C-alpha cells in the first residue's frame, strides 16, 4: 500500500507540481484517528 501511495504521489506531483509526500500523507491520515 505504501508503495502504491508513493507512486500515486509521484504522478500527482508531475501533473500539479504542488504535492509533497508530507502533504499527501497529511491529507490521507487527517481523516483517520491514529492513536499515539
From TrEMBL:
It comes from the Bacteria. InterPro entries: MnmE_dom2, MnmE_helical. Residues 2-33 form the MnmE helical domain. Transmembrane segments: none annotated. SUPFAM superfamilies: TrmE connector domain. This is MnmE helical domain-containing protein. It comes from Escherichia marmotae.
